[in-house]
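To whoever is on call:

I kicked off a structure prediction for a single chain this morning and the downstream step that reads the tokens threw a length-mismatch warning. I double-checked the sequence; it's 313 residues and nothing unusual in it as far as I can see. Pasting both halves so you can look.
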Amino acid sequence: MKGPRPAKVIIKLAFGFFGLLGIIVAVSLISAHGYNNSNQSRKYPVTSSEWDVENGYRIAVTARVIAVDLIGQNAKFQYTVFPSASIHARNIRQSNLYELNVPVNLSFGSSYSVFEAGNPLLIQTTTLPMIGDSYLYPFDYWECQMEIYATYIPINSSQVENLPVVLQISGSPNGFDIDYHFGSLNTDNDALGTDVYLELDIHRSAATKAFAIFISSAMWMLCLSAVTLASRLWAFEKKVEPHHIMFTTSLLFALPGLRNAMPDAPDIGILLDQVCLVWGMGLQSACLLVYYARFIAATRPEGWRWSVFFGFH
């Protein structure tokens, strides 16, 4: 028996080598993009307006998105308040925390904080609701909207006044990219709006999308390979071996686990399940029916008749 020609062997080896190299390069680029995106969100936060610590009565709120909970449909924030020189109190306790010389009430989305004069400005955490749906995973899209405003009582006064706010925000939790859009609802102050309106557009990161598409493609390729094998065995009337049935059965029960390996995959029922999982399990089930039909037919004894099987002679 003649072996394969050297030219074909070289072509196959080259195809396999460059295919493996392409997968390694693609995974490396996706990882590098995710790492650079994470670093950029930490080092280069976005700011609602310019901040001058010496310019009048105002506060700066430095916030970071630290988590996105799709099951609870909320985003978790951590923020810190920094006062301008006009409302900053001298810290007699030698603490590393800032203090205020006037009481300040801060509304951060749906949360409300009260900072008394002379008390340290501690780090705060809060959660805000999101609007969106995971049906189009991994191309699903979420929105989070909030308003940030503050009031204070000036020294030697009992009247509550609006306190201008500068918001600096950053953060892209693992698996997500966030775009920030600023606006102001109250522009009574000439220098900047006394409050900040913020809209967050939350979507999956490029790495998450690529990995989900890769797994979906792998599911389809495995299913089509099994269908091709079953079709050839049926068309050319080849003998069905037990390992054919074992392979297809294993693949049938492995598909849900492979689907759940997608990063942050929602519960079963999304569009991707209808495109990949349902079709894949249906095709595998059809292949098993073909195998069982041919296997039963091949194991039928000679002279066997349905009338004998049911007890008729």
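Update from on-call: the warning came from a stale cache, not from the record. Cleared it. Sanity check on the structure: The helical segments are 6-43, 206-235, 242-260, 271-298, 306-309.
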